[in-house]
Design a protein that fits this description.
4 copies of one chain form a homotetramer. The first copy, chain A, is α+β, with helices and mostly antiparallel strands. The first copy, chain A, has a single domain (about 25-100), classed as Gyrase A, domain 2 (2-Layer Sandwich). Chain A contains 3 helices and 4 strands; from the N terminus they run H-E-E-H-E-E-H. In chain A, strands 1-2-4-3 form a 4-stranded antiparallel β-sheet, covered by helices on one side. In chain A, a hairpin with a 2-residue loop joins strand 1 and strand 2 (about 35-40). In chain A, helix 2 (about 45-60) runs antiparallel to helix 3 (about 90-100). Chain A is globular. The mean pLDDT of chain A is about 95. The interface between A and D is medium-sized, with 16 and 16 residues.
C-alpha cells in the first residue's frame, strides 16, 4: 500500500501519465524528475487568472507547483520534494491544473 | 466636449447601456446611480479568478468597481465617485469586465 | 459535543469574540447574524493582495467570507449559511483573516 | 534623448542599480542581460500575495517580469525583450516590486 506522497515506480508513472493525458490536446511530459507542461494564454491577465486558480487549488491540496511565468506563458513543473520525484500528489495537482486551464 | 469622467446625461446613459448589452445573455442594469450586474460562477475559485482578472483591468484603467462576493457570486456596481454617477469610464470598465467573464 | 459548523449560543459567541478581539486595534463586531469588520488599506493593490491571501485561506478551510470591496476598503461579514448564523468556523476564518491583514 | 525602452549602456545600468539598491537589505544583481532578485517569504500565501501585487503593478506599467515561484520563494528576472536587455522600464518595475515586497 502506498501513501500519496510515496515515490512512484516508473511503470506506475507511465500508467498515471497516460491516464492524465487521455483526451488532452497538449500532453504533460516527464522532464527529469518532474511532470512538466507549458500553458500559453492570450495575454498576461489570462495567464495570471489561471495562476490564481491554480494557487487556490494548490494551497487547498497543500502541494504546490514549481512554475515560471513570462507574460502569457506559464511553465509548470511538478514533483514532491520530500520524496525526491513524482508521486500520486503530483498527478492529483496536474489534474486540478488541467481543470483550471480549461475554465 | 466631455472628458471620460464627466457625468453622462440620462439619454447618453441609455444609448451606452444599449450598446453594452447588445449580444449579452444577461444585461447590465441601472441601479440608483450605478451600472449593475451580478455574475454567477461554478464555484469560489472561478469567481475569484474572474475578480483577479477584473482587478488587473481596473488597476490598469485606474478605475475600480464596488463589488461584493459571496462564494460563487459577484455583484458589481460601477459609478464614478468624483462625478457622483455614471460616466464613460464606467462603461469602459463594464466592457472590460464582460471580456473578463467570458474568458 | 458540538461540530465546528453548529450554531453558537450567544454566550459562546461573546466569549469567542472577546478572545478574537484581544490585542486587536480594531475589533470585530456582531452585525445581525454575522461577525463583521472593515479593513482599510493604503490603496487598491494592497486591498486586493489582502483579499488574495484571504481567498487562499478560505478555500483551504472550505469556508468563505461575504465581502465587499471599494478601492482601498474591504468589508467582511462572516456567518455559516447552512447553520443560519455564527459558528466556530467563522471564528476560525476571522482569525485567519486577521493574520492575513497583519502581514 | 532616450525613451524608457531603450537599451541602457553599462555605466547607466551601474548608476541605476546603485540607486535602486540604496537602503535595501538584499540587493538586486545583474544576471546575464537581466536585473535579478530572489524574494523569500514565510509561506506560499505570502509569496502569492506579493505576486498578485506585482502583477497589478506590472499590468498597469505594461511591463512584466519573468519570474519563478517555488512555495515561499520568488525569483524575479527583469529585462526588456524588444530591446534585448535592461532598460529604464526594468528599473521602474524593480522599484515597484520592492514597494510590493515591503508592504
Amino acid at each position: 500500500m502506498s501513501a500519496s506522497n510515496t515515490l512512484l515506480a516508473p511503470p506506475d508513472i507511465n500508467t498515471s501519465l497516460a491516464a492524465l493525458n487521455a483526451g488532452l490536446e497538449q500532453p504533460w511530459t516527464l522532464a527529469g524528475n518532474t511532470l512538466a507542461k507549458t500553458f500559453v494564454f492570450a495575454d498576461f491577465p489570462s495567464a495570471f487568472a489561471f495562476m490564481t486558480r491554480v494557487a487556490l487549488a494548490a494551497e487547498k491540496l497543500d502541494h504546490h507547483p514549481d512554475w515560471t511565468n513570462a507574460w502569457n506563458r506559464v511553465d509548470v513543473r511538478l514533483s514532491t520534494h520530500e520524496a525526491g520525484g513524482i508521486t500520486a500528489l503530483d498527478f492529483r495537482l496536474a489534474g486540478l491544473i488541467e481543470a483550471s486551464a480549461r475554465r
